[in-house]
Amino acid sequence: MLLSVKDLAVSFGGVHALALSQFSLRDKELRVIIGPNGAGKSTFLDILCGKTKADKGQVFFNDTLITGKTEVQIARLGIGRKFQKPSVFPGLSVYDNLLLAARMKKDIFSSLFFKATRELNDRLHQVAEKVGLVPQLQKLAGSLSHGQQQWLEIAIVVLQDPKLMLVDEPAAGLSTEETEKTGALLLELSNDHSIIVIEHDMQFVQQIAKERVTVLVSGRLLMEDTFSVVRNDQRVIDCYLGRTNPQLEII
Ligand SMILES: Nc1ncnc2c1ncn2[C@@H]1O[C@H](COP(=O)(O)OP(=O)(O)OP(=O)(O)O)[C@@H](O)[C@H]1O
């Protein structure tokens, strides 16, 4: 297993945000985590990337215990995170955003990567091509569509070449076409990376969940199965009822 989690728990002011007895992920697996608001999904990713410290439990990544390590140490080991909130600089071009991200995070990139500017330039182009942003390289990030900004955010994570990518709500606020394109991009990226995606948009989940879907409710694991089993499970249906999330109507 690339990632394995045991008895992980964290509380905030007495509220149990996460109490996850077990979770594991294979190399190159794309796992989607769903669950109603406040289920602990973001908290889980926060623990995996070192942003939040667990009160107890263990996370092994590639057989290395990472609980207790800093965000930079965890990033160096190969875990990259795309947060829900946009973090690109709107007044800089797409190219300069990528360049800046590479320079700011140079301690987590291989030194080889920095040997020559041409090498770096080639890498930035290669990543831009992967996410379909080559025509926009010289455009200001602030002038991009919402979808293109998401792809730039994803590109910044890909630049780091992480073994595991943590992707928080990549389809939020995107058009149907952009959502489909984002799904296709994540599926393609899953050929080279393991990916955990948190998502509320069930159409999008259906598109990308080729393997197991994990359902969290109130910080706990409710079930893990294929999307078709999960969507028809009465407990999953019940935990979403009354929460008026139109994206979940497909269930
Ligand atoms: N820094 C924090 N301080 C206090 N409480 C927090 C903090 N972060 C999360 N929580 C609480 O922990 C619980 C889990 O929150 P979390 O954001 O992980 O859920 P989520 O499943 O990602 O929800 P959403 O789908 O709305 O993003 C919630 O009750 C939330 O209010």
Automatic annotation (TrEMBL):
<dbReference type="InterPro" id="IPR003439">
    <property type="entry name" value="ABC_transporter-like_ATP-bd"/>
</dbReference>
<keyword id="KW-0067">ATP-binding</keyword>
<dbReference type="InterPro" id="IPR003593">
    <property type="entry name" value="AAA+_ATPase"/>
</dbReference>
<feature type="domain" description="ABC transporter">
    <location>
        <begin position="3"/>
        <end position="243"/>
    </location>
</feature>
<keyword id="KW-0813">Transport</keyword>
<protein>
    <submittedName>
        <fullName>Urea transport system ATP-binding protein</fullName>
    </submittedName>
</protein>
<dbReference type="GO" id="GO:0016887">
    <property type="term" value="F:ATP hydrolysis activity"/>
</dbReference>
<dbReference type="InterPro" id="IPR017781">
    <property type="entry name" value="ABC_transptr_urea_ATP-bd_UrtD"/>
</dbReference>
<dbReference type="GO" id="GO:0005886">
    <property type="term" value="C:plasma membrane"/>
</dbReference>
<keyword id="KW-0547">Nucleotide-binding</keyword>
<dbReference type="GO" id="GO:0005524">
    <property type="term" value="F:ATP binding"/>
</dbReference>
<dbReference type="InterPro" id="IPR027417">
    <property type="entry name" value="P-loop_NTPase"/>
</dbReference>
<dbReference type="Pfam" id="PF00005">
    <property type="entry name" value="ABC_tran"/>
</dbReference>
<dbReference type="InterPro" id="IPR051120">
    <property type="entry name" value="ABC_AA/LPS_Transport"/>
</dbReference>
